[in-house]
Design goal:
586 residues, alpha/beta, Rossmann fold, TIM Barrel, Serine Threonine Protein Phosphatase 5, Tetratricopeptide repeat, 4 domains, seven-stranded mixed sheet, six-stranded parallel sheet, 48% helix, globular, cobalamin binding, S-adenosyl-L-methionine, Cobalamin-bd, B12-binding domain-containing radical SAM protein, rSAM_sf
Length: 586
């Protein structure tokens, strides 16, 4: 059988597509189980195909899948319904299966109202889906009520089968990296917390299961061999088991994986010793759910953390050279000018180097959603509306849209206005083993101010001066390549070409093989009309197209027409090699 697994599109546009573009990890795990059992499986990332139905029809026509499965997060459920209808138009006999957290909590609603959905896999889906595929392959005419973890129709009514017992030993699952390439990985399944805005407590029953360190790092290693160098450790809380985390970090170092990664944690689940190991093993960012500076609102969220926990975690994380990112949720029950000010006051104390502010949403499977239904006497049929979510303030007479949007404006404007000061006030621990990591951390942050997201943010002032200070501080710890390069580029932008030449030449003494440093140096030399020197510094990279283009420009500016002609011929040869599929040097 040919099986197509689909990650559907969302109906609302996003400012940053990165928020929705990654295929959920569970889809790769299901695909791995199917492939390990001999089935032909393809995964379609359709997150950006909402305005391209012709493309979806083309894929369905070309692939002719025997079964189509969908990963439903909830906000993409309408995309799943749309594509399911396309599946049935192409071939009405093709079984359509919904799964994922969104389908698990709305299985009855989906089967009752949408005839194009044939089955729903509830909860952890690998073996429920495998058994369903085997049943469909058998051609049996019965209803598969014997398969645990399903929902289906019987006598025109939607029913569910027995709950499936979760996989006891996660290491027994086939390794998805053997079959697919991806960046999002997870050590755990589940979360012990019971936050009222989150569906994890109901989905995983607050139970946590773990992969072994060997399984987890082996998967990283196999993905690294495929060229993946940056990973998202997407656990609800990566750092629940301290010794396991440290074991993983030691194995990453011992295997010389040379990767970087970002993780998610809780402020009461980290300590300085663990953070040092994480930093040495390549961790560059940890995201913490702070949610609010108001203890009253954190209590509503059942977020059992204190201001002391939050301040301690952010100081230790930043101190070890890891970007500490804060999640805040606003527009909660009882939100007011006072509680927003408490959040701003907390931001000023913890000085996060990144922050994301969300309006409180209500989703099926969360305690806040269940309370909303009970209070208003409504059913899941509210999701027949073509919407992705319900904003809490829409259900609360004490909160208006105008007021909640103003809360968000205040949080963002005051945070981003303070960010240069937060960056300048970074306090790093004095540990010589971490000096190279400190330099890397500071130069990464500096580049964000000079060329990245913060450079383009109109709410952030003093971008370049902040970047210069961070680059210069980076070089006090270690001769960091990025710091030399970034500082040279900023000096160029400021018209400080002599200083740019000086810092780039210093960088080349430490990183003689760096094309980027030589290209930047050539640019500054040309700005000083030192064309011959610029040409000479690039000639060692005569197989790098961009370097050759700069050499040609130098020849033109020196009026050396014969040399310009020869280098132009050389560039054409390089271009033909690349077009013909021949390997071209860096």
């Amino acid at each position: 059988m040919k099986i197509l697994l689909v990650y559907p599109y969302f109906i609302d546009s996003r400012m940053d597509e990165e928020d929705i573009s990654a295929i959920p990890m569970g889809l790769f795990s299901i695909g791995a189980v199917l492939r390990a059992n001999g089935y032909a499986v393809e995964i379609l990332n359709a997150y950006n195909l909402g305005r391209k139905p012709y493309r979806i029809y083309q894929i369905l026509g070309d692939r002719r899948p025997d079964v189509v499965g969908f990963s439903i997060l909830h906000a993409n459920r309408w995309g799943g319904i749309d594509i399911a209808r396309m599946v049935k138009k192409v071939n009405p006999a093709t079984p359509v299966v919904f799964g994922g957290v969104g389908a698990t909590f709305l299985w009855d609603h989906l089967l009752t109202h949408f005839a194009e959905i044939d089955y729903v896999v509830r909860g952890e889906g690998e073996y429920s889906f495998l058994e369903l595929i085997r049943f469909l392959e058998s051609g049996a005419s019965s209803i598969p009520t014997h398969i645990d973890g399903l929902a289906l129709r019987k006598n025109g009514r939607s029913i569910k089968t027995a709950d499936r017992q979760p996989v006891a030993d996660l290491d027994q699952l086939p390794m998805p990296a053997d079959y697919f390439t991806f960046q999002h990985v997870a050590l755990t399944r589940g979360c012990p917390s019971d936050c009222t805005f989150c569906g994890s407590p109901a989905f995983w029953s607050r139970r946590v299961r773990y992969h072994s360190a060997d399984y987890f790092v082996t998967q990283l290693q196999r993905l690294r061999e495929k060229g993946v160098t940056f990973f998202f450790f997407s656990d609800d809380t990566f750092t629940l088991k301290r010794d396991l985390v440290i074991d993983i970090c030691k194995q990453i170092i011992e295997r010389h994986l040379e990767i970087t990664w970002a993780a998610i944690s809780r402020v009461d689940r980290v300590d300085e010793g663990m953070l040092k190991w994480m930093r040495r093993a390549g961790c560059t960012q940890i995201s913490y759910g702070v949610e609010s500076g108001s203890q009253e609102i954190r209590d509503i969220y059942r977020k059992r953390i204190s201001d002391a926990d939050i301040c301690r975690a952010f100081a230790r994380t930043i101190g070890t050279g890891i970007m500490a990112r804060a999640y805040f949720i606003y527009g909660a029950p009882g939100e007011s000018d006072r509680t927003i000010q408490e959040s701003l006051d907390l931001l000023a104390r913890i000085r996060p180097l990144a922050a994301i502010f969300y309006i409180l949403d209500l989703f099926p499977g969360t305690a806040l959603y269940e309370a909303y239904k009970a209070k208003n006497g409504i059913s899941d049929d509210i999701w027949l509306n073509r919407i992705e979510d319900i904003l809490y303030f829409e259900t609360d007479e004490t909160l208006s849209q105008e007021r909640v949007l103003e809360f968000g404006r205040r949080l963002r404007e005051e945070y981003f206005a303070s960010l240069p000061r937060f960056a300048r006030d970074i306090e790093l621990i004095d540990d010589s083993q971490l000096y190279p990591q400190h330099a890397d951390f500071l130069s990464r942050l500096a580049l964000t101010f000079s060329h990245g997201d913060y450079a383009a943010n109109p709410l952030i002032k003093e971008n370049l001066s902040t970047a210069v200070e961070l680059f210069e501080r980076s070089l006090q710890y270690h001769p960091d390549h990025r710091a030399f390069w970034g500082l040279g580029l900023v000096y160029q932008h400021q018209g400080r070409f002599d200083e740019s030449i000086d810092i780039l030449e210093q960088g080349i003494r430490h990183h003689a093989d760096s094309v980027d440093l030589h290209l930047a140096l050539a640019n500054s030399l040309m700005r000083r009309n030192r064309f011959q020197e610029a040409r000479q510094c690039l000639e060692v990279f005569d197989t790098h197209p961009q370097a050759v283009e700069q050499i040609i420009l130098c020849c033109r500016l020196m009026a050396d027409q014969p040399a310009e002609k020869e280098w132009t011929k050389h560039l054409h040869r390089l271009t033909r090699q690349k077009t013909a599929g021949m390997p071209s040097p860096d």
